[in-house]
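Researcher: We're teaching a course module on how sequence relates to structure. For the next exercise, students receive a sequence and then see the predicted structure as C-alpha cells, so they can try to spot secondary structure elements on their own. Here is the exercise chain.
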Amino acid sequence: MKKTVTIIILLLIVVIFGGAMYYLYQKNAQDPVVYEIEQASKQTIIKKTVATGSILPLEEVLIKPNISGVIEEVYVEGGDFVNTGDLLAKIKVVPNLAALNDARDAIDNAKITLDDQVRNYQRQKGLFDKGVVSKADLERAQVTYDQAKQGYNAALKRYDIVKTGTAKGFGNAANTLIRSTVSGMVLEVPVEVGNQVIESNNFNEGTTIAAVADVEKMIFEGKVDESEVGKITENLPLEITVGAIENQVFDAVLDYIAPKGKEENGAIQFEIKGTLKKQDTVFIRAGLSANASIILARADSVLAIKEALVQFDDKTKKPFLEIETGEQSFERRDIELGISDGIFVEVKSGIDADTKIKVWNEVEPDEFAQN
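Model: And here is the predicted structure for the students to work with:
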C-alpha cells in the first residue's frame, strides 16, 4: 500500500515537472514584442482657435423718413447701387387734423394782420403825399406791411407742408421724397407701396425705408468663449470660411475684442470683429454665416512629429522620446518642443530628420511586416 502511494506521488511530480517545462518552452517559443518606428518630417504647424459668426457690412445706414404717411412709390430694390441724394421712395402725407386746423387758423390770423397793415400803409402813404407825415413814418409803415405779407405767405406754406409734406419752391427738399444719405448698395427695402410709415423723432426711431451699405467694406462679427478670449489679441490674422462659398478662404485682421462678455446658454461669450481684405473676384453677401480661424501662432516648414509619440517624465514633466539605438533597442532622449496644432508638434532640439522614434503601441511581428 505504501509502495503504491509512493509511486502515485512520483508520477504526479513527473507530470507537474513536465507541464512546467512545456509551458516554459511554449513561452520562449513565442515571438518577441516588435515596436513600430516613425521619423520626424517637415510640417507647417498652425495653432488656432475658431469663432462662429457672420459677415456684415462695416457701416450699414438705415434710411428713415422725417414725416409720417403712406408709401406712394418705391424706386429701388435690394441689390441696387445708389449715390448720396438718390431718390429711394416717395411718401403721401396723411395730415393730422389738429395740426391742419392750427395751420388754417394761422392763415386766417396772418390774413387779418396783413389787411390791417395794408390799410395802415395806404393811409400813411396818403398822408405823406400831402406832406402831413415824414418819410420815416412811411418807411416804418412799409416795413410793417412787408412783414405782415411775409407772415401770411409763411402761414400758407406751413399749411401746405402740414397737408402735403411740401410747399411751392421746395420740391427737391420735400420731406415726402426719401433720399439716400450715403453711397452704396441697397441691402433691403422692408416697405412696400401702401405701407404706413412713422417719422423719426425724439420719441420714435421711425420706420426704416431702406438699408444702404458699402459692400466693399465687410467685417466678420462673431463670438468666442471665455476660455479662449485670453489667448487672442488684436491684430491677429484671421482665416474666414463662409458656408455658402465653398473652397474659399478669406483673409482678415482681428481689430476688436469686446471688453465685456455676455452670458449665453450658461457660458460667457465675448464679441469679436475682424475686417476682411477687399475681394475683387468674389462677392460676399451680407448676413452669411461664417467661421473665423484665429491664428495664434504659425511655424512654416519646421521639424515635427506626431504629438502621440511624446512622453512626459512623471517627476519633472519634461518631454522625451524613446530613440532606436539598435534592432528593437531603445534609449530615452530629452527634447524641446515648440507649437502644436493638436496632431503635430514642433521639435526644436533633441532629434533630427533621420532619428528613428519608438511608437508606444506594440504590435505582433506579422502586423509589423504588413505595415
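Model: If you want an answer key for the exercise: The radius of gyration is 44 Å. Residues 97-129 form the longest helix (33 residues).
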